[in-house]
Amino acid sequence: MIRVFKSGEVARADILYRGESGSTQAVEDAVADILADVKKNGDAAVLRYCEKFDGVKLAGLRVAQADIDAAYEAADPEFIRTLTMAAGNIEAFHKRQIRRNFVINDTPGVVLGQKVTPIERVGLYVPGGTASYPSSVLMNAIPARLAGVSEIIMVTPPAKDGSVAPAILTAARVAGVTAIYKMGGAQAVAALAYGTESVPKVDKIVGPGNIFVAAAKRRVYGIVDIDMIAGPSEILVLADAAANPAYVAADLLSQAEHDRLATAVLVCDSEALAGAVSAELERQIPLLPRADIARASIDNNGKIIIARDMAEGVDIANEIAPEHLEVCVDDPFSLLNSIRNAGSIFLGKNVPEALGDYFAGPNHTLPTLGTARFSSPLSVDDFVKKSSFIYYTKEALGAVQERIVDFAEREGLSAHARSVSIRFEDGQ
């Protein structure tokens, strides 16, 4: 059963507690060995790990275009329609994020600017295992395509028969993925980071995964860029006394069913609502196909915190900095400016988190583990580089040479100073 606290009774450490989320030394050691093996032995190592961890002996890693096309042609037309509508919403939202080059030429002889360049090749990790996530394909691939990434390389674990879930293949075609490889876990991250005989080396790896994937991404950062180290899923529902307890419980369970380590929190201003939501959780959990996962999440990591009022509730939410924040009050916009720390904010009593997961348009790849205090959802910005440029005529440089020389000499860097002054010595 979910634990219930009054705000004055719960310690800060318990407010921030999120259950098990970090790696272990055993995981780190295993991942280090896998990375080294794949770096040295390439495809042979990846195929060996596919047999060991996925239980399938593959002849090759790449998914044939014919298999992608066949999955698309065999898909339910209504599912394709849903994917296409969701992709359109995601594209419309992320188009607003596209950055442009800019140039400043306010001073004679001086041109300054910023040049935006797409990352050339990106690796997209799509989880497999207990569930498949075509939504993750859309959310990661569409911003990359809009940014101008020329190659989007997707990896996903194969099933026991060596296939990839048709829904994943269909979503990849809708989203514009360039190539798909059947591999998962740390070995897939290694293949993307180092390259193999059949897998091209990428410049950045994005997408969620389990603790082995997260540990591998952490280790290869610097060889490639990564989006973030994602922890288990989180939801915080901030609700007033008039909220519907059945809706609130359902929303909490929408994240609890993801993972035994997922965290679901209700912050409310009503003991009556807290009790009603607790009872609803007990009623709804047995109805879920993934009831055992949801039960473990709610019992081990879930909590209800009863705040004195909504202002204190917002303070608690800001301290937790959740991945998903639902604001289930009658006037959610009155609280919006007070919310400082959240990955994605769902405003109102008819905006379940699932709306954002699948359809609305904003990205569902979000900061977890309190990192919403300083980081942001995945966006088009994650797939571009920004370079500044500077141009000065000799006359423009001469007008500021004494300032630069003075600055450099005060830092004790005489060669810096000399590189400017030499241009204005006699005969130069």
TrEMBL record:
Lineage: Bacteria, Bacillati, Bacillota, Clostridia, Eubacteriales
Signal peptide per UniProt: none
Catalytic reactions of this protein: L-histidinol + 2 NAD(+) + H2O = L-histidine + 2 NADH + 3 H(+)
Pathway(s) this gene product operates in, as recorded in its UniProt entry: Amino-acid biosynthesis; L-histidine biosynthesis; L-histidine from 5-phospho-alpha-D-ribose 1-diphosphate: step 9/9
Name this protein carries in UniProt: Histidinol dehydrogenase
Cofactor: Zn(2+)
Swiss-Prot/TrEMBL GO biological process terms: L-histidine biosynthetic process
Cofactor mode of binding and number, as noted: Binds 1 zinc ion per subunit.
Binding site residues for NAD(+): 125, 187, 210
Active-site feature positions: 323-324
InterPro entries: Ald_DH/histidinol_DH, Histidinol_DH_CS, Histidinol_DH_monofunct, Hstdl_DH
Gene that encodes the chain: hisD
Binding site for substrate: 233, 255, 258, 324, 357, 411, 416
Enzyme Commission number(s) from the entry: 1.1.1.23
Assigned GO CC terms: cytosol
Family to which this protein belongs: Belongs to the histidinol dehydrogenase family.
Keyword annotations of the record: Amino-acid biosynthesis, Histidine biosynthesis, Metal-binding, NAD, Oxidoreductase, Zinc
Gene Ontology terms for molecular function: histidinol dehydrogenase activity; NAD binding; zinc ion binding
Pfam families: Histidinol_dh
Function: Catalyzes the sequential NAD-dependent oxidations of L-histidinol to L-histidinaldehyde and then to L-histidine.
Organism, scientific name: Ruthenibacterium lactatiformans
